[in-house]
Design goal:
Layout (H helix, E strand, L loop, with lengths): L3 E6 L5 E6 L5 E4 L6 H14 L10 H8 L2 H32 L4 H30 L2 H163 L1
Length: about 300
């Protein structure tokens, strides 16, 4: 069963992938990618460039140190250090260029290169030990092996001490980076939430302002209408009162005119009635007097 790429999505929503061997052993791990498309592009880049990747062998300094004696170790170590420094500088420059050119597949390339370099370095060390044993005597071989063991022990102790000292700093740096990243993400989320709330609230505020303006305008319009209605009512009432007064005055004037015109007719009617009634009254008085005369005479006798 050949090796395979395993693509996963993390809790933060970013995508990573690993290169697993036939036995399920993880051979390499990628960096985080913002989306699925970038992760697939990184896998394609690794598949394309993995076969042509160069090996940066940094084990030459250790091999040279094992082959040399204690007297000849000092100048060679200096040369090895210079060579190692030059190689490290070149490797750093190469790494920077590769990082600028291929950001996505650099972790896998480095992991694969380191493992291949380790295998080649181990093979070179074995060959070097065999060649040294064949070319030298038992005494020189023992001395060389003793020197190499001591040097390796010192270097191993120095590396372990350096690793122990660097581990807390790396852990603290990772924690600080995680905290800063979390703080930036939290701040970004809060800023996004505030902006979203402001965008959502803007239409409501605008609608509320428009509604308030419409209500205010309606109130003003209603007040103006009521004021106009009151004024109209007052004008109509005043007009009705004025018309009623004029009508009453006309009726009073008409009654007075009628009374003035009717007064001579009434006086004439009274006079006519009195003239007509005078003969009847006189005749009645005479009749009454004639009837009363015999009674008076009887009474007198």
């Amino acid at each position: 069963m050949p090796a395979k790429f395993v693509l996963r999505k993390g809790r933060t929503g970013k995508f990573t992938f690993t290169l697993e061997g036939p036995t399920g052993q993880i051979l390499a791990t990628s960096a985080d990618h913002p989306n699925l498309r970038a992760a697939k592009a990184a896998i394609a880049s690794v598949q394309k460039n993995l076969s042509g990747a160069n090996v940066d062998d940094r084990s030459a300094s250790t091999t040279v140190a094992k082959k040399t004696t204690r007297k000849a170790a000092a100048p060679r170590k200096a040369a090895v250090k210079k060579t190692t420094a030059a190689r490290k500088t070149a490797a750093k420059k190469t790494t920077v260029r590769k990082t600028a050119a291929k950001k996505t597949g650099i972790e896998l390339l480095r992991t694969t290169a380191r493992k291949a370099a380790a295998r080649k370095a181990a093979a070179k060390k074995t060959t070097a030990r065999k060649t040294a044993a064949k070319k030298t005597t038992v005494r020189k071989a023992a001395a060389k092996k003793t020197t190499v063991r001591k040097t390796a022990a010192r270097k191993t102790a120095a590396k372990k001490a350096t690793a122990r000292k660097a581990a807390p700093r790396k852990a603290a740096a990772k924690k600080t980076t995680v905290r800063k990243t979390a703080a930036r993400k939290t701040a970004a989320k809060k800023t996004t939430a505030r902006k979203t709330t402001a965008r959502k609230a803007a239409p409501r505020k605008a609608a509320a302002k428009k509604t308030t303006a419409r209500k205010t305008a309606a109130k003003k319009t209603t007040a103006a209408r009521k004021t106009a209605a009151r004024k109209t009512t007052v004008r109509k009432t005043a007009a009705r009162k004025t018309a009623a007064k004029k009508t009453t005055a006309r009726k009073t004037s008409a009654r007075k005119t009628t009374a003035r015109k009717a007064a001579p007719r009434k006086a004439a009617v009274k006079r006519t009635t009195v003239r007509k009634a005078a003969p009847r009254k006189a005749a009645a008085r005479k009749t009454t007097a004639r009837k009363a005369a015999p009674r008076k005479r009887v009474t007198a006798s």
